[in-house]
Amino acid sequence: SDTLGMAPSGAVVMAGEWVVLEDSAAAAQADAASLPSGGDSAAAPAARNVSRLLRQTSGEEARAANWIRLLKPTVENGEVSVRFRIRSGEIDPSVGVLFQVDPKGRNGYLVRVSGADNELIAHYLLSGKRRDLKMQKIDAAPAAGEWHTLGIRRERERLYVLYDGAEKMMLRDERFIRGTVGLWTEDDTVADFADLKITAR
After folding, report:
1. DSSP state of 34
2. Distance between CA 6 and CA 200 in Å, rounded?
3. Strand 180-186 to strand 94-101: parallel, antiparallel, or no bridges (unpaired)?
4. Which terminus of the chain has fewer Cβ atoms in its 10 Å neighbourhood, N or C?
5. 99 forms bridges with which residues in the sheet?
6. Whole-prediction pTM value?
7. DSSP reduced 3-state for 193
8. Whole-angstrom Cα distance, residue 153 to residue 162?
9. Which tens digits make up the pLDDT trace of 1-45?
10. Cβ(37)–Cβ(171) under 8 Å?
């Protein structure tokens, strides 16, 4: 229900340009559904994505990181998942989920998929600086335009990283125990995010 072309409501853009866009494929399906078929047929609403765009002036370098943070809810034990689609990226086509981020957006956890290295990587952020926790190879880098799902689940001191519904990594870390959620992209990555789900346990 957010305004197309604007940043999603209830979120703070920390770096980069983030907007709500209509999914062109979903819009085409909705148009097809609205065609007359012997009776009145209302068009199904087209899906909307939160997209990280790349709009830069000539000679401007891509930011090393771009992220957006939700203002609520605050998550302790629970799970976050989001569907993502990388549209382009030459340096390191990489997307991620922020978890248990503090109100200033500078401390918390980040799990991301690195297309350059075919890896899932878990980090913690400390004063805005990224530190590695654990890495796990995946079979193949996400192909451009292909939807995948990335998630992180907390159960007390354990953190589980999930990729396309399968648990891929487990680690123990208690630096942060509560905070909000966000989305992340790396370098010049242009990506869409959809179906963000936050579940408290």
Report:
1. T
2. 28
3. antiparallel
4. N
5. 109
6. 0.82
7. strand
8. 8
9. 787 888 888 999 998 889 888 876 554 344 434 334 443 333 334
10. no
